[in-house]
Amino acid sequence: MPCHRCLHPMCGKWEQMPGDALLPGDVISIGRPTSDTAAAGGDKVVPADCLLLAGSCIAEEAVLTGESTPQWKSNIGDQLLSDASARQRLSWKEHKHHILFGGTKILQHTGDKNARIRTPDGGCLAVVLRTGFETAQGRLMRTILFSTDRVTANNAEAGLFIAFLLLFALSAAYYVLVNGLQDPNRSRFKLILNCIMIVTSVVPPELPMELSLAVNASLLALAQKRVFCTEPFRIPFAGKVEVCCFDKTGTLTSDHLLLEGLVGDPEPRPPLPPASGTRGVADDAAAGAKKGGKRKERERRVTFRDEPEELGPDGDGAASKGLDEDELADPALVKDPRRFGPRATLVLAACHSLVQVAVGEGGAASGGIGSGASAATEVVGDPLEKAALESVGWTFAGGSGGADISLSPDKRVRATLLHRFHFSSHLKRMSAMLRVEDDTPGLSGPSPYTYGDTGAIAAAGGNTAPQHVVVAKGAPEVLKGLLAFVPANYDSEYKRYAAEGARVIALAHKALPVELDAATLRSMPREAVESGLNFVGFAVFQCPLKPESEPALSALAASSHQLVMITGDAPLTACYAAARVHIVTRPVLVLGHVEEDKGHAGGGTQGAKEAGTEDDSAFCWTSPDESIRVPFSRYWDDMLRVAFEYDLAVSGDALAHATAVGVASQLIPLCQVFARVSPDQKELVVNTLRAQGAITLMCGDGTNDVGGLKAAHVGVALLSSSESTKKGSKKGTGKKGDKDDKALAGSGDKATPATSPGGKRTAGQELLARARAANQPITPRMESMARMLDKMESSAKTGVDGDMPMLKPGDASMASPFTAKATSVLPCTDIIKQGRCTLVTTVQMFKILGLTCLSTAYSLSVLYLQGVKLSDTQATVTGMLSAAQFLFISQAKPLDSLSPVRPHPNIFNCYFFGSLLGQFGVHLALLMYFYRLALGSMPEGERLSSEAEFKPNLVNTVCYLVQAMVQMMTFAVNYAGHPFNTSIIENRNLYNSLRISAGFIFLVAAELIPELNSSFGMVPIPQHIKVRLVGLSFGAFLLTWHLERILRALFPAPVPPPKGYQCYVADMRRLGLTERAEDKKKM
After folding, report:
1. Which GO terms describe its molecular function (predicted)?
2. Each residue of 935-971: b (16+ CB within 10 Å) or e?
3. Is 247 in the active site?
């Protein structure tokens, strides 16, 4: 844990205490660092999980959630205003908006001067709940450190293969030992030494090195594609992947949202006339060259496309011509924000948790309105809320230091926040109480933002005093139970857009009595505030699919991979996105709670029932349009029948129920989409798939994916560019960067060194400052070093090459073995391609080493006893060619496309051992035949004993040539090539080395240069042996080549089915589902 200091009251006196000395129950004062602490140590990091008792904070929780959006933290006192809430137990999930988590950073804070215990430094009062590894950050670190074992080259497969070769080595050594003991004159010491040499030569000591060659070559190839791996020996696992799991938001889809329009608005404004398409006041407010870019951003109209459509500079875009094509095709969808009803506009503009924070370290400590005009500020928060605010053209100013105020484009409507009920993932809604002041000229009666257009017309008098209203938004099924009146087409409207992949948010509004003051409003319980609401429409947001997602997943589906989506998004939205990327290919059923559509009637905050306490009848399988409903049953046969007919999606609640009743291990392999799941459930899904024997890949981009990334065999983290980097690239920061590079950290004593944002010195400036303080001369070499340090520091903050960030807290790459420096899932295909190439190379290396070792065992045993030996030159040349070919075979490159044919996942299969033993039989027969042929053609006096020194003779010469040919054909025949990697001709280095080997063998066999043969210790070969040597060697090559291809065809690698239910063939036959599938194919 970080050892940061905080104030702690001891003996009635506040004292500084290090963070690692805190204990649960300690009361502390914590907040954003002051200028002194910022200069000394930088940012304030929360030292433990703390419950906020007084004050409010804005905290950045990227280290835990991976989301860069700051979170508003209010004190628990707001939650205890109602008696029902006061009796609740503290829940880490439900009350997380009151908890500061250890390791997070405080951006802003506001102390409570009226608190019972006042803090001396104006910080927030908090009580310590958990410390050390019991905190949220500590549990995350445990997951990173201990969830899975590291993979090395010393695996069980290599050990078993060595044991297999050891049997042949021991057999050969035993053969030599038995025959040697029969000779009483033979030295027993040399005999034992020869047996040991056989064992050590047959069992290849270079096996780990050869495997490392293939893995390191793949490691370099992936690095060139901006994919980095911390566990290199997981690369072959990528070639075995059967199930590919993907997160949705930020991985398959973009992480920015677009407001498509409003549906069900009871008071839409009429289309603008063609002549008046301008946003007059908005244009006036945005006038000026400096703000031109911001004005264009605010005038963007969001369409049903991947990118928003931008109005012309004079507002005479498509919207000014009335309804566009999409609105004519779908009249229910109002796409122009200028046509939204006033109450719906107010909900979109003021019902949010956005905050205004100071940008950079030099900003004010609190980002309120009164923070000072000189401080640069930025509105941060939920991307959905930012998209809504920007689309309606309103502006926001506020933070923890002052009131939150939303202003209309003409600045005449002012909505001030009185009290906010934060969004809860459990309640799935949020609300806010506002004071609305409308200074619109000519307004008679109440503002339409408080009572609506109809209410303004019907009201008598000129009451333009500030009005109090409630604005609320949330999941449609939840807000339905809080409405005073539910439209007849409520369900059909939002489900239609949700089924098309949109994110639908219900909007509601209610006017409060004028006589209530602000204090009374703040004391109202949430149940009373969020009851009797008026429905004002559905906001339809779109999260565009990344253009690379569909081609990448299409390639994975076509290459025999099962695809799964694991997301925290809504089930209908997830199913639509899954259908667009080939995860869902049949009609889909969603397993959810039957009461989900009814919402929380009465607006109660009671929690859902404990998982496992409800009957199976509380859950059902439902189609997106609700035309099909199938009751859920925990029995295996019933689940398999449903999976046979439909693609399946499961919500987080249903998955929790299945886990509680013990059927999650049966349900998870049958499903394609997991929606509304927590990070723990993501890890559960991946672990269950692993337990079923599937090799899994998980791809995600946030810390909430860490559990799944660590649990998968192949975890791929996407390292996306930060929001600031994106904005900088749009604003043309490249020019600024060029100027910064030209500005030296210190150009001698004449140049004035520039400082980094916030007035701090850079690393290069510090280097030059220390040199000047020591009265050292500033040399050009020192200036060059300072520039290099500044460039490295700049790259660490903004990204390598200026387009991608370096690793930062909250990135999923903290725990993932693979990190892709990309924003799309295309690197997953590159990893699998390289994994298949590495796996094939590894398998063929096992086979080549096996054949070489078996031939060595025969040569060192049988042939050695017969006096067959190699000269030093022959052994050196053979070893050099073999080493070069092993090196070149490891440099094979994958093909550009993935093949539906899969490589064998391991070496223990009929194909591998059939090929290994078959080729060895051919090689052995060839070697034995030519040994006997040469022995019969050689005079008796030239024979050598096993103890004699090497002397050139016909047997040695012929056996050497045969062994060289066997080595060459072993590499040529067993090179895999297509469809996994480049062919042997495309692998130019290996191809040329084999050509050199063939040319050398032909040269010495034909005796074209007699002096060369003599230098190698070779004698002339009779003509009839030459002819047979060439013919039979070519015949052996053809035989082994065809044997290898025939065995590949007879024993292909198993192909996993595209759907999980297809793995259970025996159960399908028992239930008669196989026959039904065949009948469907015939029809």
Report:
1. ATP binding; ATP hydrolysis activity; ATPase-coupled monoatomic cation transmembrane transporter activity; metal ion binding; P-type ion transporter activity
2. beebeeeeebebeeebeebbbbbbbbbbbbbbbbbbb
3. yes
Query: From its phi and psi, is residue 759 left (phi > 0), alpha (psi between -120 and 50) or beta?
Result: left
SS3 of 677-731: CCHHHHHHHHHHHHHCCCCEEEEECCHHHHHHHHHCCEEEEECCCCHHHHHHHHC
Instruction: For residue 243, give the nearest of 824, 588, 693 by alpha carbon.
Output: 693
**Which residues are bridge partners to 29 per DSSP?**
7, 125
φ/ψ bin of 803: left (φ > 0), alpha (ψ from -120 to 50), beta (otherwise) = alpha
Cis peptide before 313 (omega within 30 of 0): no
> For residue 149, which of 886, 727, 711, 612 has the smallest C-alpha distance?
711
Asked if 764 contacts 741 with a C-beta cutoff of 8 angstroms, the reply is no
**Rounded-to-integer distance, Cα 138 and Cα 46, Å:** 13
Q: Which residues contact 707 (CB under 8 A, 6 or more apart)?
A: 143, 147, 679, 680, 682, 683, 686
Q: What angle do CA 1006, 1008, 1014 make, to 5 degrees?
A: 95
Q: Which two tokens stand for residue 976?
A: 């895999």
Separation CA 37–CA 366 (nearest Å): 16
What would the two tokens of residue 492 be?
């059909």
Half-sphere exposure of 180 (CA within 13 A, CB side): 23
Alpha carbons 815 and 800: distance in angstroms, whole number: 21
pLDDT level of residue 283 (50, 70, 90 thresholds): very low
DSSP 244-303: EEE--BTTTB-SS-EEEEEES-SSPPPPPPTT----HHHHHHT-SSTTHHHHHHHTEE--
Contact 449, 343 (CB under 8 A): yes
* Cβ atoms 198, 860 nearer than 8 A: yes
Phi and psi, residue 818, nearest 5°: -120, 135
Least confident of 471-475, 739-743, 1006-1010: 739-743
Map residue 668 onto helix, strand or coil.
helix
What gap in Å lies between CA 57 and CA 37, rounded to an integer?
18
* Average confidence (pLDDT) over 362-372: 37
Query: Which residue from 304, 625, 331 is spatially nearest to 492, judged by alpha carbons?
Result: 625
Pairing mode of beta strands 413-424, 429-438 = antiparallel
pTM: predicted TM-score of the whole model, two decimal places: 0.74
Q: What is the dihedral of CA 814, 816, 820, 824, to 10 degrees?
A: -100
Q: CA-CA distances (angstroms) from residue 521 to 445, 599, 988?
A: 23, 25, 79
Whose structure tokens read 């939150």? 404
CA 756 to chain centre: 32
Residue 42 vs residue 1048, higher pLDDT? 1048
Check: CB of residue 902 under 8 Å from CB of residue 977.
no
Structure tokens belonging to residue 764? 């290069």
What 3-state class would DSSP assign to 648? strand
Task: Please identify which of the residues 49, 112, 247, 701 carries the catalytic annotation.
Answer: 247
What tokens does 920 get?
């060895």
At 546-564, the pLDDT tens digits run 888 999 999 999 998 999 9
Q: Find where tokens 């089915």 sit.
A: 1057
**d(C-alpha 567, C-alpha 679), whole Å:** 9
Predicted local confidence at residue 1046, as pLDDT: 93
222 touches 228 (CB < 8 A): yes
Chain position carrying tokens 């090799």: 695
371 within 8 A of 107, measured Cβ to Cβ: no
User: What are the backbone dihedrals phi and psi of residue 974, each rounded to the nearest 5 degrees, phi first?
Assistant: -90, 0
Do residues 30 and 124 touch, judged by C-beta distance below 8 A?
yes
Residue with tokens 């140049």: 751
Please state, in angstroms and rounded to a whole number, the distance separating the CA atoms of residues 404 and 416: 6
Query: Could you give the 3-state DSSP secondary structure of residue 635?
Result: coil
Question: Does residue 586 come out as left (phi exceeding 0), alpha (psi in the -120 to 50 range) or beta?
Answer: beta
Residue 896: φ, ψ to 5°: -75, -20
